[in-house]
Design a protein that fits this description.
Elements lengths: L1 E2 L2 E2 H11 L2 H11 L3 H6 L11 H12 L14 H22 L11 H21 L28 H6 L3 E2 L7 H4 L3 H9 L4 E2 L2 E8 L5 E6 L2 H22 L6 H15 L2 E7 L7 H7 L2 H10 L3 E5 L6 E5 L11 H19 L10 H4 L13 E3 L2 E5 L3 H10 L3 E2 L11 E4 L2 E4 L2 E2 L17 H18 L5 H8 L3 H4 L2 E2 L8 E2 L7 E4 L2 E11 L9 H9 L16 E9 L2
Amino acid sequence: MRTYGINLRLALSIMEELGTARALSVAILLRSGDVAGVMSLPTPNPVDYDNIERYFCDRQASDLFRKLQVNLPSIDRRSPTISKWWQGERQCYRSNERLAKFENRSNLSDPSELAVFDFLSKVRKTITSWVGSKPPSLDSIQGRFGPGSTYSDREPLTTVADKMVSNPTLTPGSAWYLLNWVGTKWGENIARTGRDLVFVRGNRFATVPKTGLIDRAIAVEPAINVFYQLGLGRAIRERLRRATGWDLDHAQHIHRLVACEASVSREFATLDLSNASDTVSLELVRLLLPPAWFAELSALRSPYTFVPRESDGKKGWCKLEKFSSMGNGFTFELETLIFSALLEVYLSEVDIVGPSPVPLHKWGSGGSDCFLGSRSFVFGDDIILPDQHSEGFKSILRFCGFSLNQEKSFSGASSFRESCGADFMSGVDVRAFSIKVLYENDPWKTLPHVNGIRKLLERLATIRGRLNLRPWHLWVDSLPIPLRGVRGPEDLGDCVLHDSPDRWKVKVVDGIRWIRIVRWSAEEIPWVHWTPDIHLACVLFRVGLGARGITPRGSKQKPKLDWAAYS
């Protein structure tokens, strides 16, 4: 029996193995076909649990299908997404009203306001010491293409080659970048083919699937804007690394290590913000960044969004109170920079002293005189700081216009910590496995699901002390017969079913061991669809498949059985 593509027999096997009251509730809802009810169940709060096994089982039962992207009858996913976007704008408006007075010290007289001004000035000095007073020169900014849509490049025509033959879009404020852009292979091709530059007021509101109950809002940026936004984002990332040793390319792993340790020691708190990218207000960025940096980022940001009204859904241009949003190529690095500097100055103000709880090399930090990477850790809006100072820093975040995500922020005596997609309770990994997309008509693509089921059962076994793979075997038996024999080690990823070595299908040729795998071949569009100039430009931008062609994002993939060398 299937419910919205969910194989009920397989799903119930998991709930039976979990065996808690929450798992029974989920099973009853699934039997009745109430997938919306499953998604609407409240998330178990780890603070309410003193038993690791019971929390993990309840959380896993709740999360297995919570993020499933399905179309449910009578559920309007888009309207709450639009409402949330407008809520972020209202929040930024209030922040801008509150923060505008701090641009000039002469506007202030109250001692508490003067203290805030001094604090924000120190934050700006810290940011300046990290990224410099000026951004890179125009000719040294290395623009690059993103993988997705732009204002005028819609799916499926979003390959780099497609973007090079469409009419490029940009905002009037970013026209300065045309001095550099016309000298790129992209600009040369547009000039050669006589295509027009299209000026637009800003970005375009769009949504992408998140769950069956709500979508995720993104902003689709003009093509030339996002090309250089990505370049400036990389510049911020590199300067932050050189100044502090904090490397965002490896920060996620470090966050997870610290969160695991903190779930035992309680020395660190893990904070997460709600709707962070949509609540970085214009005035906050103006106050905290060096003027030259603010001007450069402002030139590339979209000052308007073409967005549906919350009241009737009709679209129109909205002048933005936020500085940037997800979809902008430098938003992530800008968030990291601002939160890191706020935290750095705050910890300096409260006189943090003492060694790190473990040697710094365990965190992988580059090492420097600042707290970032040793006593504080920031990755976008994922923040880790000494627990005893978390309440004070929360006040600073609120003043700056941010809202804490209470469900994902943990401190104090709680044995739970969460950061960068990893959950730990008393040092035990309790991250639940979620199925987001069902492939009812393409069982070969369910191989990652089957591997995820095995991983959750193994995680449960580390807690219970016994391993029961019966539910996993049921999922394996649901696969096509040829796929059931493709078994191998976990480090080969989802091209094999993860299993013990005695179940691998192996052959040895000239002393080399080969393992049977599933190899996916993506659709390739040959270069004959474009001119040789476009082919050359793509090669110079390091995209495409050499002489064969280029693969579109989200292209159809075909599986075939193959062999892979494995030492």
